[in-house]
Amino acid sequence: MSNKLIPFDVASFLETDEAIGEYLTQVLSDGDSEEFVRAIGYVAKARGMSNVAQATGLGRASLYKALSPGAKPRFDTVVKVMHALGVELRASATGRGSV
């Protein structure tokens, strides 16, 4: 008997606002900006890339390109996408500042 592996799709697990929030919080806490952009792409895929593109005013192909591995999207693009996804970033002091 042989086992067949199926491709893993993160977007298929991002079905609720809570799951999306936890996922993005965890990725952001790891501090890898490239992985964070990729995670936003997975969330956009889960919510419907066409819907996100329309809400941001960006073309669907442009959105895929901006959120693809290795892409370096502008911060305003990230903010537009986050807003369209209904996700907000928050900052809090850690008390570890050295300045």
What do you see in this structure?
The protein has 5 helices and no strands. By secondary structure, it is an all-alpha fold. The termini are far apart.
Shape: globular
Low-pLDDT segments: none
> Which series of helices and strands comes N to C?
HHHHH
Query: What is the overall number of helices?
Result: 5
- For the secondary structure, the number of strands is 0
Count of discrete domains: 1
Helix and strand content put the structural class at mainly alpha
Q: State the end-to-end CA separation.
A: 61 Å
Task: Compute the CA-based radius of gyration.
Answer: 15 Å
Largest sheet: number of strands, sense, barrel closure: none
Fraction of helical residues: 55-70%
Portion in strands: under 5%
Q: Report the average pLDDT across residues.
A: 91
In short:
The protein is an all-alpha fold and 99 residues long. Helix content is 56%, strand content 0%.
Could you list some keywords that capture this structure?
99 residues, globular
Strands, helices and their partners?
Blueprint: H1 17-30, H2 33-47, H3 49-56, H4 60-66, H5 75-85
Helix pairs in contact: 1-2, 2-5, 3-4, 3-5
